[in-house]
Design brief:
Length: about 260
């Protein structure tokens, strides 16, 4: 695809709440049940309460158990995720072939409501926005060591592309995702695996509150996310009340080709 340029992916990033201001100092599964079982979750609210058919687990139980097979469903070859935020709606398109492990993880995090009611904990104007730490400390504890294996480096960190944030060592990608607000090709020295891009609502991301800069959470590598992990939304809303939030994220119909 035209937006995927050669090169390794970028410098480390970290996920969760929006922040404006300072430019960041540092950069940013397996096949499961078939599509029929997934339909109830992908189409909206009812599937948020329970997943699957008879005997399905409630959503809260799933969020606390990243080992559940529901988190390992295979993503479609191309899919879109719609994010309703406090600033409006944006849509990303993911291509599984570009980073299969990451695309599967992101698909299931969106599908099962992990990102609902979470904060954009890092927004650096013209650079990146990052999210992915949960609002419930118990969920953060459950996912703390639920890292995925690394996909091979793929793509270039141009405006609108997204990938999982990571530390500078193998297998540290987890739930945090960053989106490039500018052309950050200098970060292509790092082995980021870019698997998607924003196809609608880039202006929404540009408007996210960035006044806290790196102070409200920063990236994975900076080692300042402990208070978010331990305190969740209660901590962020108390200490950084102007952060924007994800209200709800859902999987929508795959783009036609």
């Amino acid at each position: 695809m035209r937006w995927m340029i050669r090169g390794a992916a970028a410098l480390m990033l970290c996920s969760c709440v929006p922040v404006r201001g300072d430019r960041a100092a540092a950069g940013p599964g397996a096949v499961g049940p078939g599509p029929a079982a997934a339909a109830s979750v992908e189409r909206g609210a009812p599937g948020r309460e329970a997943v699957g058919g008879a005997g399905a687990r409630p959503r809260n139980a799933l969020l606390l158990d990243p080992t559940d097979p529901e988190w390992r469903r295979r993503a479609p070859a191309v899919y879109r995720a719609r994010f309703e935020t406090s600033k409006g709606v944006f849509v990303v398109e993911a291509v599984r072939a570009h980073a299969p492990i990451g695309a599967d993880r992101f698909y299931n995090l969106v599908r099962l409501g992990y990102y609902d009611d979470t904060r954009f904990h890092r927004v650096s104007r013209g650079y990146i926005v990052q999210f992915g730490l949960h609002g419930d400390p118990a969920v953060n504890r459950a996912w703390l060591h639920a890292q995925i294996p690394d996909d091979p480096a793929h793509g270039s960190n141009v405006r609108g592309t997204l990938a999982f944030a990571m530390a500078p060592r193998p297998s540290t990608r987890n739930t945090q995702v960053y989106i490039n607000l500018g052309d950050n090709t200098r970060n292509d020295r790092e082995p980021f695996a870019i698997f998607g891009r924003v196809v609608e609502g880039m202006d929404v991301l540009d408007r996210l509150y960035a006044g806290y800069g790196e102070r409200s959470g920063s990236g994975v590598r900076q080692g300042r996310q402990g208070p978010i992990i331990a305190g969740g939304n209660a901590y962020l809303d108390r200490e950084f009340p102007l952060l924007d939030r994800i209200i709800r994220a859902t999987i929508v119909e795959p783009a036609t080709r």
